[in-house]
Amino acid sequence: MTLLIPLAGIIALILLILYLKLDPFISFIVVSIGMGLACGMPVGRLSAALETGIGNILGSLVIILGFGAMLGRLVADSGAAQRITLSLTRAFGVRHLQWGMALAGLIVGIPIFYTAGFVIVVPLIFAIANTTRLPLLYVGIPMLSALSVAHGYLPPHPSPTAISAQLHADLGKTLLYGLIVAVPAIILAGPLFGRTLKRFRPEPNNEILRLKQLPESELPGLGISLLSALLPVILLSLSTLFNVFQVKDGPFKRFIDFVGNANMAMLISVLFATWFLGIRRGNSMKTVMKALEDAFKNIAPLMLIIAGSGVFMEVMKEGGINTDLGEALRHLAVPPLILGWLIAAIIRVCIGSATVAGLTTVGMILPLLQQQPVHPELMVLSIGAGSLMFSHVNDGGFWMFKEYFNLSMKDTFRTWSVMETIVSVAGLCGVLILQTLL
């Protein structure tokens, strides 16, 4: 009977979000309360679980997510993302343009949250396609696939960061492993799949081209743009590599551990970008701080979803559901990494939100990880890959792509939905291969 409770909870969550259009945070809370009552939890204990669930998950994430949003805003507003895209596409030339677009998409996608990144790069895609006379989707799909991979796989994006916290995965290792898995996924879903899309000739709305772009003379240099965007990756990777090679303890090692701590790395990156992409370029401190404040406000809805998922997981634990669920999953003849991907993929197809799919899956899969040894960093990537599976009409990204590129429903399924499916399946394959090497 206890095993029916989480299943009923997932179905209720899908119905509330998809059909009643209830806010995901409220949906998580309502479903969690229902599950707690169904388990026989006293009201006082249930109320305490709500508070604990929110506190536990947000306590470790507010700094990383907040600073991540701020860094993304600085990279976007300063024109650093625009500079990276233009420079890399020129460096690769028309013949290898797709590879330049994919690399630019990955670099831009690491610090910038998905929706903001999409809106920033679409005008650049249109401008580059117009200049080179190449088919629009041939140029655009490599960059958008890289944005999607960064959104699903790589910290400091909300979902992989939150999943890492819940699974106690090392953020630096998750990022390094994620980059290893991301490259082949982007190649398959971007340049290779993009080459099959030359027959599509959409005529996008010209209003898109009027979105704000800075004159090239006002853009920051390529070096400072790349360093600002990739500084969190560099700092987190340094700490991880030092630990992998077991460098002896000492002042330098302690310094690297300090700057490589996730919270410190994000703070240092924001301060660096504040100066080099903001103050040094003539912006007042008041203007820069207002932009950072707005950036933090914009991620409030995401943080509420993450908080709701924390409640969901805490109620499952306090209600004893985790124990029974873990015992049941242990007897399934499905490897944990595949199971995590599958659960996330099913929820993603049903609900549409990659973030909700990933965070809901953690609550289901966590009991199994306590009984079967699995690298938590690989489970983060497996769930992240599953959460990108087959974007369709219940996903905001599907509609953004359709409307910006002015495609029919049928062609959006044949392009965008297929690209997201390739990203998801390739991610799982990459994780399984990586598992055999660790």
UniProtKB/TrEMBL annotation:
Coiled coil: none annotated. It is a multi-pass membrane protein. The gene is gntT. It comes from the Bacteria. Keywords: Cell membrane, Membrane, Transmembrane, Transmembrane helix, Transport. The chain crosses the membrane at residues 5-20, 26-44, 56-76, 96-129, 136-154, 174-193, 219-238, 258-278, 299-317, 337-366, 378-401, 413-434. The keyword Isomerase does not apply. PANTHER family: GNT FAMILY GLUCONATE TRANSPORTER, HIGH-AFFINITY GLUCONATE TRANSPORTER. Belongs to the GntP permease family. Pfam families: GntP_permease. This is Gluconate transporter. It is found in: Cell membrane. The keyword Membrane applies. Its main location: membrane. The lineage of its organism: Bacteria, Pseudomonadati, Bacteroidota, Chitinophagia, Chitinophagales. NCBIfam families: gntP (TIGR00791). It comes from Compostibacter hankyongensis.
